[in-house]
Amino acid sequence: MATPSAWKLDDHPKLPKGKTIALIVLDGWGESAPDQYNCIHNAPTPAMDSLKNGAPDTWTLIKAHGTAVGLPSEDDMGNSEVGHNALGAGRIYAQGAKLCDIALASGKIFDGEGFKYVSESFEKSTLHFVGLLSDGGVHSRLD
User: What does the subunit comment say (predicted)?
Assistant: First the structure.
């Protein structure tokens, strides 16, 4: 087992010691090409502009979708849950659909207590599954 000191983060060169730091996570806030359809670009955002322009060397955008947060592909949209999980963990790990893909590919999904319970309970009868099917990739997928 690791000692508590093994989990200590090293000092960051851009963050001064003894100063207050704010980690601001804005669900739904995204930055992309400034065009007529970009509501963040077109809206007045003085508070955010002040934060961003006041400390440009400490303002960082992070990816909150796709493989950067443990989803199966770059085409998968992020959401609050996966973004917060990845940010809190401080590393990328498989989540949601990716975990299902891994469990199905390896066959481990059939080793779990839940699957065993269902298999044994309905061995001599019919079991009907109801689920979602969508190409959106948020609550369900086609594969």
Answer: Monomer.
